[in-house]
Design a protein that fits this description.
The chain has 13 helices and twelve strands. It is of the alpha/beta class. The chain has one domain: 3-Layer(aba) Sandwich (Rossmann fold). The protein has an eight-stranded mixed β-sheet with strand order 1-2-4-3-5-6-11-12, with helices on both faces. α11 links the parallel β11 and β12. α5 packs across α10. The radius of gyration is 20 Å and the shape is globular.
Amino acid sequence: MVEVFHQLANYWLEGTSQAAEATLRMLRDPYPLDDEPCGATPFEVIYEGDLVKLRHYSTGSKSSGTPLLVVYALIKRPFILDLMPGRSVIETLTQCALDVYLIDWIPPTRDDSWRGFDDYVNCELHDVVRAVQKHSRSSEVNILGYCFGGVLSLMWTALYPETVKNLITLATPADANIAGNPLFAVARKMYDALEPLLEMYGNCPGWFINACFKSMAPVHHAVSKYVDLYKNRQGVGYAEMFRLFERWINSDVPMTGTIFREVADQLFGRNLLIRSEFRVGDTRIDLKNITCPLLNVIGEYDDVVPPRSSSAIGAATASRDTIELLYPAGHVGTAVSGGAQRKLWPQVAKWLESHN
């Protein structure tokens, strides 16, 4: 028993040290990107804008069908989608002969604090889609949006429906009128209280975002995950998976002050997106403009984005070809679990193949 506590203490001390180092990274402006893991799948950067890099993951042979653009979230680094061999969404999709492009959002600095959804959607995402079209020689793209990337994907598809052949949303928060969810409640309560913080930093700092998410499961982050590490320490690849996952957990980057205000007010505060009243610049986002086939992937045990929040997407659009795929995993398990690579993502690839 003494040995157990000694090992757990070592795990805890190592984890605390890594979290402290991550906080220092989050305090740097700009956020350093050169120490990230290389991932499981080789890629090349084919386009770079003000706040975005576009990665292309080649299948190694000529791909057929419409290219897939993965729209990642804004608040963490994207290596969770290509974490390690056997635990990589990108690896699985390319093995299914899909031509994959991934948006790597460049962390904003104080000078970018003015940028809101209007800039991210109508400028940055606009240029990315054009780059994919040019590189792939395809007039349409398939889009896969993960979490807040799913929100951006809904906005883009509603504004530019002619460019999207098929839309996939993954763990996407849409309906904020869900009682008891910590994410929505925190955003609403913090809207006014955070104004001094936004004025001080210009943006919502990465360290604050990280603290908010960890506060949703304090026991897990303080104790439980280290107990799980001890129990599974002999498991093949478990320790390496744990190490990489912890690097991602501590990879939060700032959210621009304008984006944060729009999310807290329009998305979580007044629940305007699902009611087709959210405004991007001067334009109202009407989800009924989305008529393409829609695959809505939901984590059954998602404790960050409630399944009911994502389930509302299908009915809010005008798509006549909508499938809701409920997978037995949490918010991140849909992306990194071994089961998801064997069962979920081949099924997603098969859906895309049938709609190409």
